[in-house]
Specification:
Number of strands of chain A: 19
Structural class of chain A: mainly beta
Shape of chain A: elongated
Number of domains of chain A: 2
Radius of gyration of chain B: 19 Å
Oligomer: heterodimer
Largest sheet of chain B: 3 strands, antiparallel
Strand content of chain A: over 45%
Strand content of chain B: 15-25%
Number of helices of chain B: 9
Distance between the termini of chain A: 62 Å
Strand order of the largest sheet of chain B: 1-3-2
Number of domains of chain B: 2
Largest interface: A-B, 23 and 13 residues
Helix content of chain B: 40-55%
């Protein structure tokens, strides 16, 4: 049986193999860490890779290596310099990944930043995200709250909707302060998929089988195979049936 | 030698598949990252693929997908390197590399008892060059050391191995696939080896491992 590591207050460890690792306060791990669970309530920094079943950050943490965690939950702020391999990622705070993110499910209501590619079976966002590479997912479900960006999106199903409460709020603000431009929405270079439904999206090219372009979209070019419908409040510069 | 390329659009038409399928296969690592070649065209940026390889790969996936799960197919295409473990006598029996190469490898790593796919791939690469008469045994040693030292820990295989010679001195270096490199006039490139191709070839040689 491996021992557990607990830091209360301020302390540091050189890493290694542990059962549970918990930091309440301020802790530094100077080396690779392999453990069953890793939890930070406060501030932590890992100078190395982390391999665990469950990683939970309530506070602020930085990992300067790779992270492998079946469950990754961020309720605060987590910065990862390497790539992430996970099964279930939940972001209610801020997660920044310099490498790529591979997971089965991701649910974010906070801010997600990925410098590489993001691969997931289920990508659910009710927050802001910024993906500099390809967002490749089975289902992409986005409720627009603020700004979202992905260089490319490739998926089976893509559904982007403006969050109802946000739509109301926007309408309300516009009623009184029509000069304020609210720059929220999804921006992407290329969106490719089988069934694509978009609202409030700006893209250069949208390609797919069944494409529905909803309100407040600005799309340069749509290429579709089976069907294409466009809302009156959307701008599509050209559309081509393949 | 330019490979024939096919655009993503034409590929979907030709193979009768959808974007969703293609992305799913990419996500499951059934299609290697470095086959996605981005080029600018008049309609914006488009993705191209090496035609021969991708068509063959998709035909294989389509023929297998009724019987196997995508993860199983993925294992077939990108083997878990830790699964391959051959002993000296296995290697001798299978006749994958010459005895010379094997002895050379053993002289560098005397404690080696079993060989994983990468070890074998590195031997296989120098073996091919050696049999072509392009490099000497001495060159082999430094090349094997370079490959073992830099590539054996890496999970991805999208590299090219360049072997060059200048005034009789051989140098070897590793670059990431599809990147350009320029070399001084007096130096000559003896070999430009696509690492992932070599691993694929080796895999088919090893057969049902």
């Amino acid at each position: 049986m491996k021992s557990s590591l607990k830091i209360d207050g301020t302390g540091s460890s050189s890493g290694g193999f542990y059962d549970k690792v918990i930091i309440n306060g301020n802790g530094d791990i100077k080396g690779d860490l392999v453990c069953s669970t890793f939890k930070t309530n406060g501030v932590s920094e890992v100078l190395g890779n982390v391999e665990t079943k469950k990683l939970t950050i309530n506070g602020t943490s930085e990992v300067n290596g790779k992270v492998t965690a079946d469950f990754l939950t961020v309720n605060g702020h987590l910065d990862i310099e390497g790539s992430v391999i996970s099964k279930d990622v939940k972001v209610d705070g801020y997660l920044e990944i310099d490498g790529s993110l591979n997971t089965d499910i991701i649910k974010t209501r906070g801010v997600l930043k990925v410098k590489g590619d993001c691969n997931a079976e289920q990508f659910n966002s009710q927050g802001m995200f910024n993906i500099d590479g390809l967002l490749n997912a089975g289902d992409v479900n986005v409720e627009i709250v603020g700004k979202a960006y992905a260089k490319e999106i490739g998926a089976e199903n893509v559904k982007v909707k403006i969050k109802p409460t946000m739509a109301k709020l926007k309408k309300f603000i516009h009623k009184f302060l029509s000069f304020i431009e609210i720059k929220d929405g999804l921006t992407a270079d290329i969106i490719e998929g089988d069934i694509i439904e978009l609202e409030n999206t700006k893209a250069k090219v949208v390609r797919g089988s069944v494409i529905t372009i909803g309100k407040d979209c600005v799309i340069d070019r749509v290429e579709y195979k089976d069907s294409f419908t466009k809302d009156d409040k959307a701008t599509v510069i050209e559309s081509v049936k393949l | 030698m330019e490979k024939e390329l096919i655009s993503k659009k034409d590929l979907l038409d030709l193979m009768n598949i959808t974007y969703g399928q293609l992305y799913r296969w990419k996500r499951k690592n059934l299609i290697p990252e470095h086959w996605f070649i981005r080029k600018s065209t008049f309609t914006g940026q488009e993705t191209f693929f090496p035609k021969g390889e991708i068509v063959q790969r998709i035909e294989k996936i389509q023929s297998m997908k009724d019987d196997l799960s995508l993860d199983e197919i993925s294992d077939h295409f990108s083997p878990n390197f830790s699964n391959v473990n051959l002993t000296v006598s296995d290697l001798e029996q299978r006749n994958i590399v010459s005895n010379n190469t094997l002895q050379l490898f053993l002289s560098l790593y005397p404690s080696k008892v079993t060989f994983n796919l990468k070890n074998i791939a590195h031997m296989y690469i120098v073996n091919t060059q050696l049999e072509n008469g392009d490099i000497t045994l001495e060159d082999c040693k430094s090349i094997v050391k370079t490959l073992e030292g830099n590539l054996s820990q890496k999970t991805e295989s999208n590299f090219n191995i360049i072997i060059s010679r200048k005034l009789g001195i051989t140098t070897c270096f590793i670059i990431s696939s599809h990147s350009n490199f320029y070399i001084e006039d007096k130096a000559k490139v003896i070999a430009n080896i696509d690492y992932s191709n070599e691993i694929d070839t080796l895999r088919s040689k090893l057969g049902g491992l």
